[in-house]
Amino acid sequence: MAAPTEAAPAGPQERPRAAIEARTLRRDQWWRAPAVSAVVIGAFVVYATIAALWNADYYYEPYISPFYSPCLVAGCHLSSESYTHLRVNVPHLSVLGYWWVVSPAILILVFPLGFRLTCYYYRRTYYRSFWRSPPACAVAEPHRRYSGETRFPLVLQNVHRYFFYAGLVFNAILTYDAVVAFRNHQGQWGHVGVGTFVLLINAALLWCYSLGCHSCRHLVGGRLKHFSRHPVRFKLWGVASWFNARHMQFAWASLVWVALTDLYVRLAASGTIHGAWV
Amino acid sequence: MSTSAGATGEALAPRELTLRIWRGDAKGGGLVDYTVEAQDGEVVLDVVHRVQATLAGDLAVRWNCKAGKCGSCSAELDGRPRLMCLARLSTFERGVPIVITPLRTFPVIRDLVTDVSFNYRKAEQVPAFQPSADQPVAPFRMAQVDVERSQEMRKCIECWLCQDTCHVIRDHDDNKPAFSGPRFFARYAELDMHPNDGLDRRRLMQEERGLGLCNITKCCTEVCPEGIKITDNAIIPMKERVVDVCYDPVRLLRRRRARG
To answer: Per residue in B54-89, is it b (16+ CB within 10 Å) or e — as a string?
Structure first.
């Protein structure tokens, strides 16, 4: 049954507020958290843009950069100057062919970027750090008008759950990448290098971040009225709630680590680091 | 032993404390300094009462339980919305005046007392609990796991700190008619998650109560003296429930097909 939508009762004419000129009377360093967030997110955006446009040094068998996985072009192995082996490991979709000259990372990053851009935690962070809406609690924002998430383009934040679904697909691919990182250049199991751990941690952090997603929490059980009638979904909701309570920590950890993973593969592929331990 | 006893004695010894209190009414006002004796074991409300008893008998301040349960003594301490009865003096920097101002979002009546009737008008707009077809009449039988989410919202003491800190109305008076505010989003969530409530308030929340205006910056959660996770456990779950009926194309198609 839908709720009635009668007109709201009109309130009495409001009197003025207390005359206080200061934008805020807070004395603590309220600007520090949004400033740190802006610096970290800004650094990531700059790094990710350069890495995505670089279009080289993203594959060092058996490791592939998370920015370029799955391998969409026919010759991922050609991206590495130090590459001397046949491709045996990474998911290789080859949907783009040798004619594709633009970085395939641009096609891939749309999805994780959309997932993070519409994420409830990141929204809070960039509304505070970049939009200053508000910069901090009880600190006046500089904008004269405010329509929240009711109009285009911010109303599109409501499609977050679809980016969550896409994020799950990429998590599965990156998990596969981490598993095949236990194979050596010849495709034999048993290889363990530093890169294996780097890729494993990357996949784990991305799962932890995704499972704490507010949309995930809603979809697995939050939308129910009766947990008692759905014990399995209640358990899943409990798991999602545990991750959700740590969503901020996993959001930052996975963001930083995915950049470090790309950097590691890039250093290996370019020959900057080499040796059996890699 | 003697050292710690000495340190404790020093901390509890009376000291001079300056409160910088906003005095005035709708016509205007300003900050006035009052210096009184205080000790660290006290809370800000204790010292405000001392000011009222010794220096400014006409100081207007709203209070009741002095135990963080009635939600009356809400004010802004050094710019942060807090309950004066829960603000221990030991948590403030020594030697620096504590600035006390009324809630900024609401019209001032006098000194620290504001007109919070906006909130009661919003409360009147909430469609009340309506029993579902499953159990149309009392007594209602329900499992504990089904009511726990709603019970978190029932902890609300209606101190209006979340309403005060919410920038949607704090910084934009023009949003007040269209925005219920975090306290009432929690109330809507409480009802929507209630296992025996049969009324669908989702479209109402989005289209007339301003849920879409909230940009989930979590200030309401930060100031809640009851520790209610308003954003994570009420507002965002309600935003997701609204997506189910308003924005999810797959669910919308499914609904249309079901309707024929």
So the answer is: eebeebebbbeebebebbbbbbbbbbbbbbbbbbeb
Looking only at the bridges linking them, the beta strands covering B98-101 and B15-25 are parallel
Q: Touching check for A197 and chain B: CB below 8 Å?
A: no
Domain residue spans of chain A: 32-138+152-269
Q: Do B213 and A150 touch (CB under 8 A)?
A: yes
Give chain A positions within 8 Å (CB) of B208. 5, 8
Q: Which helix (H) or strand (E) holds B16?
A: strand B15-25
pLDDT band at B254 (very low <50, low <70, confident <90, very high): confident
Domain B2-114 part of CATH 3.40.190.10:
no
Beta strands in chain A (DSSP E): 59-60, 63-64
pLDDT exceeding 70 applies to what percent of chain B?
Answer: 95
Task: Decide whether B2-114 matches B117-259 in CATH topology.
Answer: no
- What are the structural domain ranges in chain B? 2-114, 117-259
Query: Domain spanning B117-259 has what CATH number?
Result: 1.10.1060.10
- Could you tell me the pTM of the whole model? 0.91
Closest by Cα among B109, B86, B150, B38 to A16: B109
Distance CA A11, CA A9 (A): 6
Distance in Å, alpha carbon of B186 to nearest chain A alpha carbon? 15
Task: Give me the pLDDT at residue B11, please.
Answer: 57
CA distance A228 to chain B (A): 6
For tokens 């209606």, the residue is B158
